[in-house]
Specification:
Layout: E1 4-8, H1 13-24, E2 30-33, H2 40-46, E3 53-56, E4 59-62, H3 64-72, H4 84-97
Parallel strand pairs: 1-2
Antiparallel strand pairs: 1-3, 3-4
Helix pairs in contact: 1-3
Length: 98
């Protein structure tokens, strides 16, 4: 099993953002496709029915913006621009779109 497990729905745009971020960062992850009509698998790991949910090191992280922030906090991440001003702008844009 990978260190990261992503619970997602294939045609969900929020899930797509997280899948793209994981791919951009070249991070290994395991895919668990969640059925829209049966969310029990994601509810078991996160306590809620929304997707995406990233489980890393036994901790469930929900909400695409929070997951992206988590992935971007790694050393060497390319998800968030280095200048502080650009980081603030990016966070505002992600929250607005999300």
């Amino acid at each position: 099993m990978a260190d990261r497990v992503l619970y997602h729905i294939p045609d969900c745009p929020y899930c797509e953002m997280v899948r793209l971020a994981l791919t951009l960062e070249r991070l290994p992850w395991e895919s668990v496709v969640v059925d829209r009509s049966d969310r029990s698998r994601v509810e078991e790991v996160s306590g809620q029915s929304g997707v995406p949910v990233l489980v890393q090191d036994g901790t469930a992280i929900s909400d695409s913006a929070v997951i992206l922030q988590h992935l971007a906090s790694r050393d060497g991440s390319r998800l968030i621009p280095v200048p502080r001003r650009d980081q603030t702008l990016m966070a505002l844009l992600v929250n607005h779109v999300d």
